[in-house]
Structures are given as structure tokens and as C-alpha cells.
Automatic annotation (TrEMBL), chain A:
Name of the protein in its database record: Uncharacterized protein
Keywords, ordered alphabetically: Membrane, Transmembrane, Transmembrane helix
Classification lineage: Bacteria, Bacillati, Bacillota, Candidatus Fermentithermobacillia, Candidatus Fermentithermobacillales
Listed transmembrane segments: 7-27, 39-60, 72-91, 103-128, 140-160, 180-199
Length: 209, 258
């Protein structure tokens, strides 16, 4: 029963959501759309519980780091202190309170932006490796990327007025054809996985059989 | 029926019918052949490498949730996590899983725990190795990169829905010399994985991995049924091109808006 009940719930909920996407079905005040909306509201409640579990997981791991004085334990201490303070301020004063907003925009947003900015350096190092002309494929990639970059920068048009047109052609035809192949394959693959889950053939999300 | 969804319904029904037909064939003993994918074959190699080096494995199931258009990628990642965790348990190798979405945490915990249980090594399962890091995208990215830098994994698995953090993970993994297997259906991240990882599961390949590992003929039949979906897509592209060429876009629009 431990396996059957989740599989039945998955099937029933899946069928309701699919039917609601396609059809307007209802008797009196009860409609499929209402049931579907209610189910989606339940997922929000489950998500809220899951957030509690996640917070417990975080506290358990980091309090163990502090207790056992593992390397970098002071980072765990900083995390727990800031987490407790932010949660306390958020719950008691609301997330729109000046204090919460100050910490959010003054600390979290700049740290987030800093991590994001690392991407520029990672792109450079990855591009350096990817664009080395080791074989025919890599050479085609190198030449194409060079033309596309040239076409995107103002200097490209100065060198030859048709560079932006060549870039546009590369992006709109060979690149788009490849992209569509991947999109179609992925969409069909996702649908097939959905069917496997819906009919109970795929149960790995419940743990091992 | 809602307007504009009739055509989608027809495609959905036809594709589902093709898949169920292949399932019926498989049940009568006609098991389709699935070609080998390099990324799939490399999974055991990656776990073996980490074992030989005496280093852990780091697994990220991406940053997508369980619902919406990206949910399937997370489910595919969790399927692969089950196989990787079981292989890691078999070889007595530690597996560290970094989680961003709270709903994914209990599922990942259960998958890894039951993988160790299935190998009779529940005592080797460490619940602290399935870690919730943060819901914020770049805080999660910093968390995974930090784990990679500190734990120096022998292999990393980056499979699921990824966005801007994909290249950060792949480059950090590359800099520490980990064997990297990645997979995503997010179009704008695939090239980053291809550039920085050893093996990449492109789009649909990621969704097929579970069927490969299971050895179940019915699951293999479903993968074969997908090919029919691609035939439909090719037919529609050709038909759309012909209609557009002969100035009959109104027919295409009528079908789409049905």
C-alpha cells in the first residue's frame, strides 16, 4: 500500500490536470477548473511544509558543523545567525518592512550580483577551451563564433558591411535548425516521461523498488 | 474544449496512442533496440573513477521545481540520481546532493536512502549528504561550487533544469579535474555543458536514461514510441513549409487556433 496509494494519487491528479487543460467540464457550481485549482493550491501548502523540512535540514547540518568545529565552522555560525535574524524580522515586521528591505537590498542583492558576475570569467575560460581548433568540428565552431561575435559588435560592420547579415543568417538558419531539433526531441521526451509517471511505470521518485 | 488547444489534444492523443501501441508490442516480446549513448555509458565510469580516487561524487538535480514546464527535467534528474546513488552505494562511494527546491529535498533523501538500502548498505548512508542549500539561485550556485571546492569530487553530475549557474558549476568541476556528466533540456545552457563537461545528455537523451537503466522492455518501448512523435513533428514541419510557400498560412492558423 505504501507504493500503491502515491501511484493512485499521481494518476488521478495527473488526469484531472490534463483534462482541465483541454476541456471545460462542470456540473452546477462544481467544475473541473475549480478542482484543478484546489489541487494546485494544495501543492503550495505542501511546498510550505517542504520549506520547513529544508530549514531543519539546513540547521541540522550547520549546527553539527559548529558543534564538531569542522573546518569553516564560523561560516555555518554566520549562516544560522543571519537566517534566524532575517526570519525573525520577516515574520514579526513583514518582508516589506524598512529593516528587512535594508538587509535584503544591502546584503543579499549585492552578494547575488557578485556571484552572477563570476559568470563572465567562467565564460571566458570555457570559450578558450571550446574554441581551440583541435579538429574539424572545433574549427567550424571557432570560425562561426568569430563571425557571430564580429557581427554583434559595431567593429564588424566597419570591417565589412555584410558581417551582420552573415551573422543573422548563421543564427536564423543553421543555429535555429539545430535548436528546433533539440526542442522537439526534448518536448517529446518530456511528454513520454510524463506518461511513464502517470501510468505508474516510472516510480523512481518514490525511492527504489 | 478551450479554443487553441484542439490541435495540441490531437497530437497528444496520437503520440500517446503510438506509445501505448509500442508498449503492447513489447508485452508480446517485441523489445525495441536502443542505441547506446556515450553519456549513459559514462555514468558507471564516472562513479568508478571517483571510487578509485577515493573522492566523493557531487550531484546537482538543477534548480527547477517539480511542476510547470521544467518539472519533467527534475523528475528525469531524480531518476538518474537513483541509479547513480545505487552505483555509488555498490562501490562504497560517498554521494553529496545539493538541493535548491525544498519539495525536491525529501524525494532526493528518500531516493538516496533507499538506494543504499537496496545495496544492503544503509549504515553507509549519511543523511547530511543530501543538503538543502538555498532557494536563491546564486546562493545555491555558491553552495554547490563551495562543496565542489572543499570536497574535491572525482565525478560531478549536473543533470536537470539549469540556468545561469550551469557554466559556473561546469567550470569549477573542470578546474578541480572531476569527470563531469551533464544533462539539460534548457536550450541556452546546453552549449555551456558541451564546452565544459566530459559528457552531455542533450534534451531527450536525459529523459530516456531511466529506461536504459531499468532494462524494462516496456520502458524501452516508450522510448521507441517517442520516435513516432518526431515523425509527426517532421511531417508538420514539411506540411507547414508547403502551406507557407503556397500562401496558405490561413489554413495553418485555423488548425493552430482550433
Amino acid at each position: 500500500m505504501k507504493r500503491e496509494i502515491p501511484l493512485v494519487i499521481t494518476f488521478v491528479v495527473g488526469v484531472i490536470i490534463i483534462l482541465d487543460y483541454f476541456f471545460k467540464i462542470g456540473i452546477g457550481t462544481l467544475s473541473l477548473a475549480t478542482v484543478s485549482m484546489e489541487i494546485q493550491n494544495w501543492t503550495l501548502i505542501i511546498a510550505a511544509f517542504a520549506l520547513g523540512l529544508a530549514a531543519v535540514n539546513l540547521l541540522r547540518i550547520h549546527s553539527a558543523n559548529i558543534r564538531l568545529k569542522r573546518p569553516g565552522w564560523y561560516n555555518s555560525l554566520a549562516l544560522i545567525i543571519t537566517m534566524v535574524i532575517m526570519s525573525f524580522v520577516g515574520i514579526t515586521q513583514g518582508t516589506n518592512s524598512p529593516l528587512y528591505r535594508y538587509w535584503y537590498t544591502g546584503f543579499l542583492v549585492p552578494v547575488d550580483a557578485t556571484i552572477f558576475s563570476l559568470l563572465a570569467f567562467y565564460i571566458t575560460s570555457a570559450a578558450y577551451r571550446a574554441f581551440r581548433a583541435r579538429n574539424v568540428d572545433a574549427t567550424i565552431l571557432l570560425v562561426t563564433a568569430f563571425v557571430v561575435m564580429l557581427g554583434r559588435a559595431p567593429v564588424g560592420e566597419l570591417i565589412w558591411k555584410d558581417v551582420p547579415r552573415v551573422t543573422k543568417w548563421l543564427m536564423d538558419y543553421p543555429n535555429m535548425a539545430g535548436q528546433r531539433g533539440i526542442i522537439i526531441g526534448a518536448a517529446v521526451g518530456a511528454l513520454s516521461l510524463g506518461l511513464r509517471i502517470l501510468i505508474g511505470l516510472e516510480r523512481s521518485y518514490l525511492g527504489q523498488d | 474544449m478551450y479554443q487553441g488547444r484542439g490541435f495540441i489534444l490531437v497530437v497528444f492523443v496520437v503520440l500517446s496512442g503510438a506509445i501505448f501501441y509500442r508498449i503492447r508490442l513489447a508485452r508480446t516480446g517485441k523489445v525495441p533496440y536502443l542505441r547506446k549513448l556515450a553519456g549513459v555509458s559514462a555514468i558507471e565510469e564516472a562513479v568508478g573513477r571517483a571510487t578509485e580516487l577515493g573522492r566523493p561524487i557531487v550531484f546537482s538535480p538543477g534548480i527547477a521545481g517539480l511542476g510547470g514546464e521544467y518539472g519533467a527535467q527534475t523528475f528525469a534528474a531524480l531518476e538518474i540520481l537513483g541509479y547513480v546513488a545505487r552505483t555509488a552505494a555498490k562501490y562504497d562511494t560517498r554521494i553529496i546532493v545539493g538541493i535548491r527546491i525544498p519539495e525536491v529535498l525529501p524525494i532526493a533523501e528518500e531516493i538516496v536512502r533507499s538506494a543504499f538500502a537496496a545495496e544492503g548498505k544503509l549504515d553507509r548512508y549519511n543523511p547530511d549528504d543530501v543538503r538543502f542549500l538555498s532557494q536563491a539561485q546564486f546562493a545555491y550556485a555558491a553552495g554547490v561550487m563551495g562543496i565542489m571546492e572543499r570536497e574535491r569530487p572525482g565525478a560531478t553530475f549536473l543533470i536537470g533544469g539549469f540556468w545561469a549557474e550551469s557554466l559556473m558549476f561546469a567550470e569549477v568541476g573542470n578546474s578541480i579535474g572531476a569527470l563531469q556528466i551533464a544533462g539539460t533540456a534548457n536550450l541556452h545552457q546546453i552549449q555551456f555543458f558541451v564546452a565544459a563537461c566530459d559528457y552531455t545528455l542533450l534534451g531527450e537523451e536525459m529523459f530516456a536514461v531511466g529506461a536504459y537503466f531499468s532494462g524494462d522492455p516496456v520502458k524501452k518501448a516508450i522510448i521507441a514510441g517517442q520516435d513516432f512523435g518526431k515523425i509527426i513533428a517532421i511531417f508538420l514541419i514539411v506540411a507547414g513549409t508547403l502551406f507557407a510557400t503556397f500562401g496558405l498560412e490561413s489554413i495553418v492558423n485555423r488548425v493552430i487556433n482550433w
